[in-house]
Design a protein that fits this description.
Length: 363
Amino acid sequence: MKEKFLLIFVIFCSISCEPTKDFKGEDIPDQKYISSLLRNEKSQNQKVIAYLNQIIKEGSPAYLYYLRANYLFESRQYKKANVDIQMALKASPRDFDYLLLAGQIAFNLEKFTSALNYLNLIKSNEKNHSQIFFLLTEVSLKLNNYKLATYYLNQIRKSDLSLKNQFYYTILSNLCLTTHIPKANLINILDAKSIQDTRLQRIYFENAMNYTSKYLYQNQLLKVINEYPNDPHLLRFWARFLSKINQFKLAELNYQKAINQFEQIDNLYLEVSRFYMFHRNYPTALIYLNKIKQDLELFIDVPFLKSKCYLYMGDNLHYKSMMDSVKLFLKNDTRFYQLKTKHFGISVDSNLVVKDSLLTIRP
């Protein structure tokens, strides 16, 4: 669809090799300029985006927002792309291309529930059948729903796939069995050539750090980051690597860059809070823990990590307050009681002479 609209521009501009004016009086670039954008799309994304920035005004048609969202998506500026695709969907909420791109963007912003909603609306489409079900498989894997991921993967007709997609299918099949197949085996299947595929690239860097040499991993990752400096996932992997080799300041900088490229991303906030806790920066860890929404499955770890932060900071008042409040909604989580006994040596008194702040007495 993107190429179709640019082609329209080319045809329109072919009337004259000189810049002309459109009906709004705006300059339209000549045929040579637009043709040059089409020749090397990957390296020219920013020029196309800059051009679209000039012509998109308030009230512009939906397809222009979609077009810019597509180029932003390909340059991996997912946060900006999401703004544009939402504008396009506002005008045309049932357009297949818009919904597909919205699902892809939501997946890359780790808004997995939204991604599922968009993709489920269009999964009956036969033309893009394999692409949609590949995406549904990956979203399900991110949600740790391996049975659903396997179901979606089995909906794909493998015999109809290109060799490239057949290899991608094999990798996803391995990921669906990740509890049975060691990640080292998965990394052995992926080679330097296969990670040229964007879909496999992220899978590789997410899993390879502990199964390849540091030198090789660093060189491979930096090469891709140099090509896609706005990719928040690559920045996140790079921050993890820097933390592993004790480059705290650089890791901190790249974590912040990654956060700025996302919207609300609780999984990353949790990861960054653990990073600061590991480096004993407990006040900053608390800042990120407080950003995490309370309605997520991972939130069960947040009160425990907060308790540890307060304890290691020597803030006994907040620590005890946290421990007493936690028992109201995490009664069966023994980690809090173990943490308390480890640092204060409080044991259960059969006569209840000493009142334990975590003990719940039932008649």
